[in-house]
Amino acid sequence: MKKSILLELWLAVLTYVVIGAAIFRFLELPKEKEMQAIMKETREKFLRLHPCVSRSSFRVLVQNVVTSVTVGMDPGAYFTNKTRSTWTTEGAIFFAGSLVTTVGYGNVILLSDEGRIFCVFFIVLGIPLYGMLLTSTGEHVGTNLQARISTMENFLTKRQLLGTVMVRFLASIFFIGIGFLFFVALPVVIFITLENWSEVESFFYVIVTLTTVGFGDFVPGTNPVNTFWGYQYLVLLWIVLSLFYFASIITMIGNWIRQEMNNLEEVEKLSQSSNLMGRAKEPSRRFPRGSKVVPAPSSVTTRSMTAPSTTSMTAPSKTSMTTPSKINPSKTSPPKTFPTKS
């Protein structure tokens, strides 16, 4: 890639990020100020209604609640006799799967130093392993899909029903539509039903998860009221299968683009070779060594040259006209002269 194109890409990404930051700030800053005002009003109202509670004690209580929420604990458990652990077998597998798939919701925080050290090694070894699995599965599935589409493409092109480009375009739209239906639309409906999220919240969670961003503000299975055992297993399976499917679609489209690029390069090479062969057939103009090449007179010099007058042009006399004889190396004869008529 040329340096100019690389520089343009850097500028485009930086511009995109800056514009996005400005839009996010414009949209979210008023909401943040509104929430801060509500929290301040709630605090003052609580202290006013409960004068026996000091501000320092209330601050300690709030800090403990925030810390509990940060590490993934349910604050509602403080008001009931039921406690729910984050590190159940299902929760631990879901956490490990979110690390390997690079989603990383961030709703669970490791508290022990031993757990943090193990997490570092787990990520360093697990992410490349999952990346190899994702790439291999995507190539395998994408190659099979491409073979099926090639069969359909040959069938339609032989009967002159559709061209190659149109077949590939329609196939891409078809498989992307299937993926959107089963891995985006259907999960959105399920999360709306089971998690009591809104349409926007469910769609936001699905896209954030499938792009492996994983903010952690919405995590399925944290509310055990409407869920069931094995629910997070199914969510983890949905994440893995969705990434595999879209990786295969991207691989298939990438193979098509690579084929088109190779075809264009071959056409350019053939045109260049034909031009070189055409130039090779042309006779080359060579001058003997030491000879001076006189340039052709330009239009300016030809215009500046004056035609000779007729008076200065004298016809040669017949006496000066001689016919050259054939030169014989043994015998030489003087040139013949013709008399002029008086």
Automatic annotation (TrEMBL):
<dbReference type="InterPro" id="IPR003280">
    <property type="entry name" value="2pore_dom_K_chnl"/>
</dbReference>
<feature type="transmembrane region" description="Helical">
    <location>
        <begin position="91"/>
        <end position="110"/>
    </location>
</feature>
<keyword id="KW-1003">Cell membrane</keyword>
<dbReference type="InterPro" id="IPR003976">
    <property type="entry name" value="2pore_dom_K_chnl_TREK"/>
</dbReference>
<feature type="domain" description="Potassium channel">
    <location>
        <begin position="78"/>
        <end position="139"/>
    </location>
</feature>
<keyword id="KW-0812">Transmembrane</keyword>
<keyword id="KW-0472">Membrane</keyword>
<protein>
    <submittedName>
        <fullName>Potassium two pore domain channel subfamily K member 4</fullName>
    </submittedName>
</protein>
<feature type="transmembrane region" description="Helical">
    <location>
        <begin position="231"/>
        <end position="253"/>
    </location>
</feature>
<keyword id="KW-1133">Transmembrane helix</keyword>
<feature type="transmembrane region" description="Helical">
    <location>
        <begin position="169"/>
        <end position="191"/>
    </location>
</feature>
<keyword id="KW-0813">Transport</keyword>
<feature type="transmembrane region" description="Helical">
    <location>
        <begin position="117"/>
        <end position="135"/>
    </location>
</feature>
<keyword id="KW-1015">Disulfide bond</keyword>
<dbReference type="GO" id="GO:0015271">
    <property type="term" value="F:outward rectifier potassium channel activity"/>
</dbReference>
<keyword id="KW-0406">Ion transport</keyword>
<dbReference type="InterPro" id="IPR013099">
    <property type="entry name" value="K_chnl_dom"/>
</dbReference>
<feature type="transmembrane region" description="Helical">
    <location>
        <begin position="203"/>
        <end position="219"/>
    </location>
</feature>
<feature type="transmembrane region" description="Helical">
    <location>
        <begin position="7"/>
        <end position="27"/>
    </location>
</feature>
<feature type="compositionally biased region" description="Low complexity">
    <location>
        <begin position="301"/>
        <end position="342"/>
    </location>
</feature>
<dbReference type="Pfam" id="PF07885">
    <property type="entry name" value="Ion_trans_2"/>
</dbReference>
<keyword id="KW-0407">Ion channel</keyword>
<dbReference type="GO" id="GO:0022841">
    <property type="term" value="F:potassium ion leak channel activity"/>
</dbReference>
<dbReference type="GO" id="GO:0071805">
    <property type="term" value="P:potassium ion transmembrane transport"/>
</dbReference>
<feature type="region of interest" description="Disordered">
    <location>
        <begin position="275"/>
        <end position="342"/>
    </location>
</feature>
<keyword id="KW-0630">Potassium</keyword>
<dbReference type="GO" id="GO:0005886">
    <property type="term" value="C:plasma membrane"/>
</dbReference>
<feature type="domain" description="Potassium channel">
    <location>
        <begin position="182"/>
        <end position="258"/>
    </location>
</feature>
<comment type="similarity">
    <text>Belongs to the two pore domain potassium channel (TC 1.A.1.8) family.</text>
</comment>
